[in-house]
Amino acid sequence: MLLRESGRHTGDDYDLAAMAAGDGTGGGVAAAAALTAYADSFYEEGRAGFAAARDRLHAEIGGEALVDAAGVLAIFNAVVRVADATGIPLEEQKAAMSADFRGALGINDYPAAAGKV
Amino acid sequence: MSVEAAMVESLDYRLSPLPVRDDLAAAQKRAWARLAAPGEWWSGAVRIAIAEETRAAETCGFCRERKAALSPYAVTGAHETATDLPEVLVETVHRIRTDPGRLTRRFYEEALAGGLSDAEYVETVGVMATVIAIDSFCDAMGLPRHSLPAPLAGEPRRRRPAGAKEGLAWVPTVAPEDLTEAEAGMYDGLSAVNIHRALSLVPAEVVGFFDMDSVHYLPDGQLRDYGTEYRALTHAQTEFLAGRVSVINRCVY
How far apart are CA A104 and CA B46, in angstroms? Predict the structure, then answer.
């Protein structure tokens, strides 16, 4: 949802569907395909492609931003577990604001969405 | 001592091929120290055992088999454990670590029925989140993981927030208006949105986790300040990556 807000501020119309689909089209965010590959390969069994994805992201965004990206990936790998393990729901306002793309992207069908949106 | 061993032993990134921001390293050191100390409901030894079990879950064959099943309840078996923690705690840790997207209220209620208190459950989640974040950072950087700290002696504090209430989540939570003097600073610097309240039954876990969160992600006050970039990674790139991680984990956040 903050991605959409960010785009509104800068005048960009980021494609949330591309982010959710992970199809490599990027959705208009700089280096999005490399970011997608970085995240996706992190979660692959064995992480066989992760080193190459990290090198690609490094080449596209630089070392300082790669460290930032590692921090974001790391903390969200924890945040999703805090959210899912405690059953914390989305705030009503956020649920209303995100209703359109949650439905379109299939997020409401996630097992963990039950009772939370 | 090798470069890798030095980084593992000291939670020190000075030898990392890519410079790690000082605030990141400092926050992780604070978190590592907090991990080893007695908590609100668990001793330092149990907290470190939970951290060890969090790591062990990643290679647990039963967890892998269950994750692949249509339903996590369709498979029976035994976890491959690294500690002598009670079975209910092992099950709690392994499920949260390996299959968070399919957790339901039933899972939480089974943990309570198995003997965990609601506050012990919440502290367990907080400990897990701490070690997962720091381990994931090392993995994402291509660096060796740090050794877990040695547990510190001492008794848990055993203080439950008087204003904790049922209703918002599976676990009881504390709304900002229900804070008492004992946990008055819990939401300092935070907007107290739902994700901040998730661990509020154990206030020290809120303070500790979001101390890390603010430097790995962004401080609350900078999240919507789209006119200023505070990191080399832009707001849009940050949110894109965060969103992608949530999608992969099938999390509504």
Answer: 43
Q: Which of residues 28-67 of A touch B (CB under 8 A)?
A: 29-32, 35-36, 38-40, 42-43, 47, 50-51, 54, 58, 61-67
Helix (H) or strand (E) holding B140: helix B118-141
Q: Which residues contact A19 (CB under 8 A, 6 or more apart)?
A: A3, A27, A29, A32, A36, B240, B243, B244, B247
Please check whether residue B59 touches A, CB under 8 A. no
Supply φ then ψ for residue B165, to 5 degrees.
-135, 150
Q: Residue A82 and residue B103: Cβ atoms within 8 Å?
A: no
**Quick check: B221 contacting A, CB < 8 Å?**
no
Sorted by sequence, the CB contacts under 8 Å of residue A109 that are 6+ apart come out as none
Q: What is the pLDDT of residues B114-159, one digit of tens each?
A: 999 999 999 999 999 999 999 999 999 999 999 999 999 999 999 9
Instruction: Tell me what ipTM this predicted complex has.
Output: 0.95
Q: Is the distance from CB of A112 to CB of B102 less than 8 angstroms?
A: yes
Sign of the CA dihedral running B52, B26, B253, B202 = positive
Reported as a single tens digit per residue, the pLDDT across B42-94 is 999 999 999 999 999 999 999 999 999 999 999 999 999 999 999 999 999 99
Q: How far apart are CA A21 and CA A42, in angstroms?
A: 16
Contact A74 B137 (CB under 8 A): yes
Question: Using the beta-carbon criterion (under 8 Å), do A65 and B232 form an inter-chain contact?
Answer: yes
**Distance of alpha carbon A68 from alpha carbon B160, whole angstroms:** 36
Q: Nearest C-alpha of chain A: how many angstroms from B153?
A: 27
Nearest to B236 among A3, A66, A115 (CB): A3
Query: Chain A closest CA to B90's CA: distance in Å?
Result: 14
Beta carbons within 8 Å of B71's beta carbon, 6+ residues apart:
none
